[in-house]
Each structure stands twice: as C-alpha cells, then as structure tokens.
Specification:
It is built from seven helices and twelve strands. By secondary structure, the chain is α/β, with parallel strands linked by helices. The protein has a seven-stranded mixed beta sheet with strand order 4-3-2-1-10-11-12, covered by helices on one side. α1 runs parallel beside α2.
C-alpha cells in the first residue's frame, strides 16, 4: 500500500482551476492508497469553520468520499488556515492533527510538521504565531461578523506580504540547528514538512546517525506530493531533479 503527503495548496475561491486540480488529484492519485496526510495550508485563508465558501464544496465532497472508501485522511493546519478546527475536520472525515505528530512510516519513526515552527530566524512571524494561536484570539475571531473577519485576514496577509519584501530568503527558511534540535527532541531520524515552498530531499546527521528532511512543495497550478511505500519515497514535483529515496 501507499501513503501520500501534500501541503501548501493555498486553495482560494478566486482560483477555481486550482480547486479543480486538487479534486482531480484526490480522484486519480488516491485509488490505491491507505492514507493521505495534508500538512497545512490546504487553504490560502480560513475565516472559520462556520464560514465555508461554496467554491470548496467539490473538494469537501471528494474528501468525504475518501473517508467513506476507508482511506484514512489526516489534516494539519498551517500558517494560512490555522483557524481551521474540528468541525471542518469532522465534516470532511479527516482527523485533525496537532502541530507536531510522529508516525511510523513503513518502519521509520517520522515527525510531521507544517514547517513554520522551524523558521525561528523570522522573529516577527514567530511572535505573531504565538498570540494568534491563543484561545482568546480564536474566541474573538468566532464572535465577530464575517465582514470583520475578512478585514482582519486581509490586513494580516497584506502585512505579511509587505514584510516578505524586506526579509532575506534565509530568514524565511528553516533554521538548521532548530531542525536538528526538534528531531532530537522527538527522537526521530526523519522529518516531513511543507511551508517553505522549497521542495527537496535533504540528508543530514542527527545524533550521529543518517537522517532525512523531506520538504513538500507548494501547488502553483501544478501538483506536488510525496508518495511513499515500503520500498521507496518519491517526491513528485516538477522543480525537483533528485526525487527518490530508497527505504531499503
């Protein structure tokens, strides 16, 4: 059997082509799999489980079909759709995962993250992340009208876009020391994450042992996913040349 990993689709009602691409992917590439992991930023923005755009209905129905067919689907929030909660997960038949989650991937203990927590050099973002994940912030968002939620979301995205123009590429990438620290903390030699939009298979050393960091790609009108079985991992992305990793 096969396990698939995707992240950073950034689906938006304003881009129906990408929604259709995602639905087609879930129809065609999941026929012989046992599980699917969505590691954050499935949506470009999320205003609350009580406000789901009708443009996402085809995607929701397809996720429900996967669940009904017995395929286990796991959902992790990202930096764009972090307001997403249990109601949406239950509606789609997905299991909502915490920010860090360890699985046994064909015999290898593997840590799953969205990836934003590894970018510790981006101090302003980490500060925003801390307060935006509080119960008070979530309570506030769910108790204001839709139009105000949209304004807050627009301002956050605008400020983020402005800051990116002045931040260096290195600041917005993962901190290598933090990668190793986290992998040591969770006692794993394999890490899979998204967020940085830099798809690659990195080999490193953790606790004196060979380790892997697999970075999922974002979807820019083209699919990007990691396909795993008990023989190999394959990172399928048009930007990646060396995309296979043997598990033997």
């Amino acid at each position: 059997m096969t396990t698939l990993f995707i992240s950073d689709l950034h689906l938006s009602p304003n881009n129906p082509d990408c929604i259709e691409l995602a639905v087609n992917f879930l129809q065609e590439e999941t026929k012989d799999i046992e599980s699917l992991y969505i590691l954050g930023d499935l949506f470009n923005t999320w205003l609350g489980d009580d406000i789901v755009p009708t443009a996402f209905n085809p995607l929701i129905r397809q996720l429900q079909r996967l669940h009904q067919s017995g395929i286990k689907t796991y959902l992790m929030v990202g930096n764009r759709d972090f307001i997403m909660g249990k109601d949406f997960a239950q509606q789609t038949g997905c299991e909502l995962l915490p920010d860090d989650y360890v699985i046994n991937l064909y015999g290898t203990e593997t840590l799953l993250l969205h990836g934003d927590t590894l970018c510790i050099d981006d101090v302003s973002y980490q500060r925003f992340r801390c307060w935006s994940r509080t119960k008070l912030f979530r309570w506030f968002i769910y108790h204001i009208p839709t139009r105000y939620r949209q304004r807050i979301s627009d301002k956050i995205k605008q400020k983020s876009h402005q800051q990116k123009q002045f931040k260096s590429t290195m600041i917005m990438d993962v901190n290598q020391a933090e990668v190793i620290r986290v992998m040591e903390q969770f006692k794993v030699n394999q890490l899979i994450h998204g967020h940085t939009h830099r798809p690659a298979i990195h080999q490193l050393e953790v606790n004196g042992k060979a380790a892997n960091r697999i970075v999922l790609g974002d979807w820019d009108n083209e699919i990007s996913y990691l396909k795993c079985d008990d023989q190999q991992y394959q990172l399928i992305d048009h930007r990646v040349a060396k995309n296979r990793l043997s598990t033997r």
